[in-house]
Amino acid sequence: MAGDDQAISPLAREGFVLFTGKAGCADCHSGWRFTDDTFHDVGLPAPEDTGRYRFSREPGDRFAFKTPGLRNLASRAPYMHNGSMNTLDAVIRHYNGNWLQRPTLSPLLRDPHLSEDDITALLSFLDSLNSDGGTQVPDTATHTPQGGKP
Fold first, then answer.
1. What are the angstrom distances between the C-alpha of 5 and each of 8, 25, 46, 92?
2. Which parts of the sequence belong to the Cytochrome c domain (predicted)?
3. What pLDDT does 149 receive?
4. Total structural domains in the chain?
5. Which residues of the chain have pLDDT under 70?
C-alpha cells in the first residue's frame, strides 16, 4: 500500500478494521504473512484427526493445526487443514461462533457475532490479499532439501 489510500477499497478497509478488531482474526493471523506460525485447535469436527498431538503426545495439542498464512487465498481452496470448507464465506461463518466446544479449543477463539455486512467486509479484505499475478504461492515445493551434514 505504501501510503496509497486507494490501494484497497473502502469495504476492504472496513474488513481490515474488523480483521484486526472485533472479528479477532489477527490474534492468530498476524504479521506480513498473516500467520503466527503456531498451532491452535479451532473446533473443526474431526474425531480421528488429532493434529499436533500425533507428534508431540501433549494432551493440549489434540486437534491443533498450524495457522496458515493468508496471502493469495483465492487460488488455495479448499480451506482449513483438511480441506473441509470450499469457500472463505464458510470459513468466516465457522469462526463466527460455529465451532465444536472441547477442552483443547484455543482460548483465542471468541464469538465475534458478525453481521452479514461484517462478513462481506471481511471477504473483501481477504480478497485484497490476492496478488494480481506477480507473486504466486506454489502448490508444492519446487526444491526439497537434501539430507546429510554439510
1. 7, 23, 42, 26
2. 10-130
3. 46
4. 1
5. 1-3, 133-150
Q: Which domain holds residue 77?
A: 10-127
**Grid cell digits, residue 55:** 507428534
Nearest partner of 103 among 48, 57, 41, 44, judged by Cα: 41
Residue 27 phi, psi dihedral angles, 5° rounding: -60, -30
CB 11 within 8 A of CB 106: no
Paired with 64 in beta bridges are 51
Letter for the amino acid at 10? P
3-state secondary structure at position 126 = helix
Among residues 124, 113, 89, the alpha carbon closest in space to that of 17 is found at 124
Give the separation between CA 122 and CA 114, rounded to whole angstroms: 10
Residue 105 within any structural domain of the chain: yes
pLDDT of residue 67: 95
Domain assignment present for residue 4? The answer is no
Residue 83 confidence (pLDDT): 92
Structural domain contains residue 132: no
- Report the CATH number that the domain containing residue 77 is assigned in CATH: 1.10.760.10
